[in-house]
Design goal:
Chains A, B: Belongs to the peptidase M20 family. Two copies of one chain form a homodimer. By secondary structure, chain A is an alpha+beta fold. Chain A is built from twelve helices and 17 strands. In chain A, the strands form four sheets. The first copy, chain A, has an eight-stranded mixed sheet with strand order 1-2-4-3-5-17-6-16. Bound molecules: N-(aminocarbonyl)-beta-alanine (2 copies).
Chain lengths: 406, 406
């Protein structure tokens, strides 16, 4: 069994880097704070006797040797970047649970046949740079290193520059790194486990996701003298599209999701009719056919709205991954470890994307969820119980040991 | 008659300070560029033999002595601050037309009984700081100097600090400065004159205006795992209010106006359901009773939407002035000057607020409009014809001479 207190203390220490007033964490990908967080975790891994390699997209692999070191490693991991108003657990838990597994094996002098690796992947959140789950996406070949390097934040800084600046642009070619099996522990980020009063969520699949940038182009003009019928008001046309995103999601229950999380208005002056409004659209579903229908309804609605309003509307898909069912062997290992340890459990479909969906393209993969308070995540008040975090880590330990062999 | 070319050249020279790539001007109130613009105009005034005084809110008065210098001055003026995507003419024309009147009087050695003054008022646009028309508002006592000093831009800098910083916090107490009559020339900023093919707009009145900040408070949560029916999505509630602003304006034709020009989303991340959305509302009408009804409909709609959605919505009125009918004597002077000069003319209600509405609280006031291209203003492509600008300036010259007496 792992040391729950040590796991909790590591989480709290990492959460101090970028801590916010409201008790959350703001540690955006590839900022100075991200570098500090990375340095702390790498330091811990080295102290635990692990060797560290970094690839060209900044993914970090921390390795505990196996007795047969030629075997592909049994890997676990997640990310340590956060949302602008993020919490202490999203991602960080998965990385530090992996570290706690290694510390526990060290405590008991347990050697595994296959090596154990703990990874943290670059820019999982996708807040500062798109695509989301960038490090694992490049690693599995979902998109190229060049594409990722060229991604810009709102201030025009690129991933390539920022990786270089914080000293985490490694040498290893992404993907040039075998994986035997991949596990990821994570807070659920939704209310299902808490509502059902279960401790461990076994994750059969992750919803697919489609992200768009939508830009409405009208004509700036003065808010006073310009008669209502002569306006080309980009804000008013955007406000027609925003509710449709939710309406489409509601037409595909129970797993349809639709969100407009980001909006920028140009020139953003109160007495100027907006000439341009740019906003994001996030559509999800666990069924790819339904996600495609949602995509088609969105596209058709945009075309109709453009025709009716006479304004230009550009809809650009900026990220997409299909729903990802996990591998039965790995899901099975999670199930049997949970049963052995006697935790209450249920299956939970993941609405959030995770690095595990990209790892799943290269190796048998699966995930372990634990409850989070009120199902709230991507919020500074995100919270989780130490006992639940410990339970998830114990399941991880036993499931990994089953694969890595003692 | 004035020198149209000299007027045009002055406009083009001033427009170089803060010139934008698209041919417009960005010279926000109390920035370094505003200081440069102010210095240029003050330099021209001194070269034309005028004396300059500055009051505590940064209004600048440039005076040409009269033969009876104890008479209250006949004043003209406007503003030289611009929108973030502003044009070359809005405001600037009114100030430089005044300067051109003085230069013309100098050329012909004409002395007036009453002194002539040309003013430029601080922060007319209200983009960087609210209230709008700040300098003339403080001057006429519509709100206090302290209130204006405390106004903050989005970066938290105050009007008081910024005035001090650019060296335009003068000594004179605002309003401690008599006015005999006030004229203001301005581009129409709407399409009426151009549509009717008239050169001079006589302005009987300016619409009243009500400005609000509206803040919707929901709950940030993850865009993927959070089921649709459990969301408290501030963006979706904001998107219900935005079209109502236009619907209300459309219920009070022909002078009802409604605009949402500004929006800020928090935390503005594409996979976070927005926890807070803040936006501006601009309502106008030329009839105060109708403007009040629009205000009441807005308030009632907000209350209903808050009750229906269960989210918190705060509506705060941040600016208000009632419709302003101008003084018959000054409007008459504009009419007779236009007739004498033989320009085509019509009456045009002003949808934009102007410093003249505050001057009107202290002295008989009126305005002269000239056409602008396609009725477009608050846009970098704002344009006007040299011949029209010259015509408006000629009307100003003759109307002012009628009041100031030769
Ligand atoms: N787990 C997580 O928050 N991933 C970010 C990508 C997403 O929006 O699902
Ligand atoms: N003339 C002008 O653009 N004034 C700004 C205030 C308003 O929005 O009417």
């Amino acid at each position: 069994r792992v040391d729950g207190k040590r796991l909790w203390d590591a989480l709290m220490e990492l959460a101090q880097i970028g801590a916010t007033e409201k008790g959350g964490v703001k540690r955006l990908a590839l900022t100075d704070l991200d570098r500090q967080g990375r340095d702390l975790v790498v330091g811990w891994a080295k102290a635990a006797g692990m060797t560290v390699t970094i690839d060209q997209i900044g993914n970090v692999f921390m390795r505990r040797a196996g007795t047969d070191d030629a075997l592909p490693p049994v890997m676990t991991g997640s990310h340590i970047d956060t949302q602008p108003t993020g919490g202490k657990f999203d991602g960080n838990y998965g990385v530090l649970a992996g570290l706690e597994v290694v510390r526990t094996l060290n405590d008991h002098g347990i050697r595994t046949e296959a090596p154990i690796e703990v990874a943290f992947w670059t820019n999982e959140e996708g807040s500062r740079f798109v695509p989301v789950m960038m490090g694992s996406g490049v690693f599995c070949g979902a998109f190229t290193l060049e594409h990722a390097y060229a991604a810009k934040d709102v201030d025009g800084r690129t991933v390539g520059e920022e990786l270089e600046r914080i000293g985490y642009r490694g040498d290893q070619a992404p993907g040039d790194h075998p994986i035997g099996a991949y596990f990821e522990t994570h807070i659920e980020q939704g209310p299902v486990l808490e509502d059902a009063d279960k401790v461990i969520g076994v994750v059969p699949a992750v919803m697919g996701l489609s992200w768009y940038d939508c830009t409405v182009t009208g004509m700036e003009a003065h808010a006073g003298p310009t008669p209502m019928h002569l306006r080309r008001d980009a804000m008013q046309v955007a406000a027609k599209i925003v509710p449709e995103v939710v309406a489409i999601a509601n037409r595909y229950p129970p797993y349809g999701r639709g969100t407009v999380g980001m909006m920028q208005v140009f020139p953003n002056s109160r007495n100027v009719i907006p000439g341009e409004v740019k906003f994001s659209i996030d559509l999800r579903n666990v069924n790819d056919e339904l996600l495609n229908r949602m995509h088609e309804e969105m596209t058709a609605f945009i075309d109709r709205t453009a025709a009716e309003s006479g304004l230009g509307i550009k809809l650009e898909r900026v990220s997409y991954y299909p729903p990802c069912p996990f591998h039965e062997d790995v899901v099975g290992a999670v199930r049997s470890a949970t049963a052995k340890l006697g935790y209450s459990t249920m299956d939970v479909v993941s609405g959030a994307g995770h690095d595990a969906i990209y790892a799943a393209r290269l190796a048998p993969s699966g995930m372990i969820f634990v409850p989070c308070k009120d199902g709230i995540s991507h919020n500074e008040i995100e919270d989780a119980q130490p006992a639940h975090l410990e339970a998830g880590c114990n399941v991880l330990l036993h499931a990994m040991l089953e694969r890595a062999k003692v």
